[in-house]
Structures are given as structure tokens and as C-alpha cells.
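With this grant's support, we have settled on a layout for protein records. An illustrative entry appears below exactly as we store it:
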Amino acid sequence: MQQLMAGARSTVFPVLYPSQASLAAHPPYTHRIIEDPEWSLITVPHLSELCLQHIIHNFEKNPILDRLLPEHQRKVLDRLSTGLPLTVTANLISDEDYWKRCCTERWRVCDISNYGDSWKRMFLERHLENILKRFIPNTTDPNQVLELIPLCKDHVRKLEVDQFLPPVQVDQKEERDDVSDTGSYDEFDEVPVHHYDLGVLITALPRLEELHLTYGVKDCGMNFEWKLFNFTYRDCSNLAVAVKMCHNLKVFKLTRSNVDDDKTKLLVRNLLDHPCLVELNLSHNLIRDKGAQALGHLISRSRLETLNLCNNQIHHLGAQALARALAENSTLTSLNLRLNCVEDEGGEAIGRALLTNTTLKSIHLGSNNLSEPAAMLFSQVLAQNNTLMSIDFSCNHLGLDGGKQLLRGLADNKALIEFDLRQAEVDEETEYLIHQMVWANQEASRLESLQHIPDKPL
């Protein structure tokens, strides 16, 4: 028994080790980390950062900005989407960096010097202009324009709209196509094509100072029709009433819009005694003598400083009416009559007015069929007028004697610094001598201006 107990105590149980085959078949567990390119050891973001991310993500539904600290506002503005609705951003965000991103992401060319160096003003003005250019009467919802008024009224100072789309007339076009084989359209009367009425919009923009308009369609291609460029009398009436109500308007340009005498007289009636208008541009239209006579009346009853009537159909009667107004005017400084046909009678009338006028600084009479008689009278103007600084007689028929008359009149003139005589049939030597005199006046004017520049403090 003792032997058995001793044997039991001495029994050693063997330690079981895995065989080589077993190790090969069942390798031991090894911990491996699979590589994750986005995995990092950075700690969980701060609570403030998580809050900012939430604000940015939900900004459209719950715009929170003014209650944030300045450094947090900066982070939010730098990360906000530029596609947020204007109803959210226009009256809330004034940060120029945000509006710069909005502009540069939408347009390739962004020159803020034309917008008072304000990115926000640029965005709001150009956005409104784009909507007006694409507005189709009776199709586009007017609320697209009206809803913008409270958002941009304090920022819009200038509107440049070079396209107004007419209403869609599909049915009428289809009917015309049906009878196109007969070649007769007499039974279908032309329906007037009226454009969007700007009255409600521009009268609600208290800071609007410049309005540049062209009634026509751009890039119409094979769909070209003359009626697409028809500025109707009703269009003109609506516009004239609206402009009259814009008391802060300083610059009004209505170009390439087929403005004739009747529309000119309608515009003038509403612009008489305007408190702020200083520049009027009606170039590239259809204004004749009666329209020019109405504009002469406007010169006498306004504060106009610049009048551009380039490329119209004004003859000597219209030029004489403008001259009568010019003789008594004391505000106009620039008059452009290029590409009209005032001829010598009209040119002489303007010249006689300039013998007494003391405010006009620039006169453009290029391509007006002027000849030697007009040049002779302007030689007197050059000798007596000490205000006129720029004259353009290019593309006329002044002739050799006309050029010599101008040279004699310029002998004692110290004010004229620009004189264009290209293609005026003036002798080359005479033109060279005139150029030398004008250049001397330019140098004298430049040196005088340098003397008046104040010294900058060191």
C-alpha cells in the first residue's frame, strides 16, 4: 500500500506539446492592423469644432453668425457654401471675402473697380442683371425679380441690361408656318411685342445711380426677326415714367434700341428738370431733327453735363436747335454728334454757339459731312474760346484751306489738348503743325497739373 502510494506520488504526467505538423496546420493567433489611409492618431475634435461643423451644415435652416465669436465667425464664413439662397445670405453676410468667393466661382471676369470695390455689390447687381436678361414676359414668374428687391435695394447702384426678351408667341408662328407655302401673311396682323416693365423694380432701388439699357436679343442666330429688336411706344412710356421717379439717377443710357423722334420726345418730357441726371446717352438710335429739337429743350432745363447722340440721323435743323440751347447753357461739358449729318449749316450753328459758351470742353463732330465753311468758323472759336479742350473733326471734308484756317485760329490757343483731324482731307504739313501746337498745350497742362500735386508727407 505504501509502495502504491509512493508510486502514486512519484507519477509525473507528461506535458503535451503540439507537433510540428499541428503547428503547420493550425498556426498560433497573430494580431495584425490593416492599413487605413484615413486612420490617424489625432484625438476627437474639440466640442467647439463639432458645433461649428453643425452650424455650417445646417446654416440654410438655422443661420447663426452674429452670436459667434469673431474667430468662429471667420471659420464659418470661410467654409460656407456659395450656393446658399440669397434669402439667407444677402441681409446677413457682409464679409467681402465670402462674396468674393461667390463672384469668382460664378464668373470668370470680376473687376470690382466698376462696382465701388465691393464684391457684394458686384454679385447682387450682376445676379439681378442676369435675371432681367432672361426674363420672358408672360412666362417667367415676376416674383423672381420682386423677391430680390428687399435683398439688394441697399446695394444696387448700377444696372447694365443689354438684352430684353420678348414674349413667346408660339401659336402665331405655327400659323405662319402653315401658310408659308402661299407666301402671304397679310391676314395675320403684327402683334406688338412689349418687354418687361422696369417700373416696379427701379423705383424700389433708392440708391440706383446708373441705368444702361439696350432693347434687343443677343445670340438669336437663325431665329432672327426684326420684331425682336422692337422697342415699342408702350415700352418707352413705361420706362420714361420709371426714370422720372428715380430721383437719384445720374447716368441714363438707352442705346441700340431704335429710339425715334416720338420716343425721344416722350423721354424728354419725363426728364425735364430732373434733379440729378448729368449724363444722357442715346447713341446708335433713329433720332432725327424733331428729336434733336426736343433734346435741345432738355439741355436748357436740366443739369446735363454729357450728351451722347452718336450715330443717329440728325441734320442741320436738329443741330441748330442744339446750338441754340448750347449758347445759353452753363452745365454741359461734352457733346458727341459723331456719325450724323449736320453738314456745314449745323456745324456753323454749333460754332457760333461756342463763341459765347464757356462750359463745353469736348465736341465730337466726326463724320458729319463738314467742309471748309465750318472749318473757317471754328478757326474763330479756337481764337476766342479758352474752355474747349477737345475737338474731333475726323472723317470730314475740311480741305486744304480749311486746315490752314484752323491752324491760324490755333496760333494763340493754349487750352486745346486734343484735336483729331484724321481723314479730314487736311494737308499733311498743316496737320503736323497743328499736332505740334496741341502737343505743346498738352505738355504745359501736364506740368501745371504736377505743380498742383500736394507733397506727400515723409
